[in-house]
Amino acid sequence: MYNKIDFSKIDLTAEPPAEEPARQYYYIAKCRQYVKSASERLGRTLTSTVVTFGCQMNARDSEKLAGILECVGYQMSDCEEADLVIYNTCTVRDNANQRVYGRLGVLHGFKKKNPHMKIALCGCMMQEESVIEKLRKSYRFIDLIFGTHNIFKFAELLCTMFESGRTVIDIWKDTDKIVEDLPVERKYPFKSGINIMFGCNNFCSYCIVPYVRGRERSRSPEDIVKEIKTLAADGVVEIMLLGQNVNSYGKNLEKPTSFAGLLKEAEKIDGIERIRFMTSHPKDLSDELIEAMKHSEKICRHLHLPLQSGSTRILQAMNRRYTKEQYLSLAEKIRKEIPDIAITTDIIVGFPGETMEDIEETIDVVKKVRFDNAFTFIYSKRTGTPAASMPDQVPEEIVKEGFDKLLKTVQDTARNQVARWQGQTLPALVEEQNAQDNTLLTGRLSNNTIVHFPGDASLIGRIVHVRLKECHGFYYMGEAVETPKF
Prior knowledge:
Blueprint: H1 22-42, E1 47-52, H2 56-72, E2 75-76, E3 84-89, H3 94-113, E4 118-123, H4 129-138, E5 144-146, H5 154-164, E6 168-170, E7 191-195, E8 197-198, H6 209-213, E9 217-218, H7 221-233, E10 238-242, H8 259-267, E11 274-278, H9 287-295, E12 302-304, H10 312-318, H11 324-337, E13 342-349, H12 356-369, E14 373-378, H13 396-419, E15 425-433, E16 440-445, E17 450-454, E18 463-471, E19 475-480
Parallel strand pairs: 1-2, 1-3, 3-4, 4-5, 5-6, 7-10, 10-11, 12-13, 13-14, 17-19
Antiparallel strand pairs: 8-9, 15-16, 15-18, 16-17, 18-19
Helix pairs in contact: 1-5, 8-9, 11-12, 12-13
């Protein structure tokens, strides 16, 4: 493991190793010299910040970037006037791209005042050729640009940036590489995301992800279990297994295994109290997974199951590969087998060709499934996806009408679902002090519902039994009633 490496003893007069991760250890050692020299020249420790746009996968990638930056000698900061600022970008919707462009203008101003400042961009947005072309032309002050497939090369790319004095651009179109045992700096000491697979094979017609994240590739179960054991030994009590579609996990391994099988192995690890995962695709959620969740004491009672639309006609145009009836049947089976489960979802409004009749179909699903929460999005045209060139793009006023009607239904049904726990006492993992009132703690139930209750900061990272006194729509006010677990 990298934390057992003495980077000061790596011979930098030798050629860099060809094999990973030894090659990146070599470049970490080399970067340490550059950072140390710059710190001595400035008379202070260099600072860095990683700003994350997007999903849990990006958040986990940012922890890896932060781990390497700390290893090479940067002091991590939340300030975007740091000596090195990295934007880990998202490109699922066009407004995510526009946010990055807007922030780059601000960073340019900071760099004019601080000429030795370095600016780096990475993530999904960087996998788009049009983005790279725009950055080349209009944002020449950026020092480093790389994508999603070569994040493991970050130390090597940093080294090239220090040595070159020019903008370094390194974008891979795809990869089959998975490099283990690189530094990670977790945001929370008591919980952690774990990548179990990368990429996506689904090619939903509105989605850019398979084009920027590449095809599915699964980590070996042995490497995943090893990482979970290391995290448990370091005090982690809750893990979240991450993949664009975790139900597809293991299909491309030499020795195929199932996601349910992986969950069962994770359950055996001492110290891990809670297991979450994201995201499941309805088309291949198996009976084996439902059974694993039903009988588990560690797998959380929460399932995020994106619907996207309740209209079979629209689902077909989206290339989702299930019908409205199949989704309802699956949800009914899950509710029957695991009565205390919370089901959340994603819904897109305004997909090309969608009518108010299609919206009514979606509203019908919302009422029948009774989602505990639903993340509703207005369709965003993404250049390079099939949906972007489809006819019958929906007028804005029709989209707004459908969105508002759907949102009201979602809010009404979700409030009723969340309220059904009022008066019960349930275990909550205490995550932080409440941002608005530091006399309160904020915890998360197994079903992903938030509860705020009076308590001391010493309870953060503990599992506490909390009586749910008052339901406030999507969260509870409560009181701790039992000594924390472990």
